[in-house]
Design brief:
single chain, 54 residues, mainly alpha, 0% strand, rod-shaped
Length: 54
């Protein structure tokens, strides 16, 4: 039974490591996404201004 327990602990550690990695990647994506959204909105505004000759 000790082997199974060891395996389970290792799995939990792996899951925790993966979760931390996932969260940090997700946070990066959110941060990058926000920057992209700001850029895109600015570009859209500029494109509209050019398109409408404003």
């Amino acid at each position: 039974m000790q082997c199974a327990d060891k395996g389970r602990k290792q799995k939990l550690v792996d899951i925790k490591g993966f979760y931390i990695l996932y969260v940090s990647i997700k946070n990066d994506h959110v941060r990058i996404g926000r920057q992209e959204t700001k850029k895109r909105k600015a570009l859209q505004r500029a494109a509209c201004a050019v398109f409408w000759g404003a």
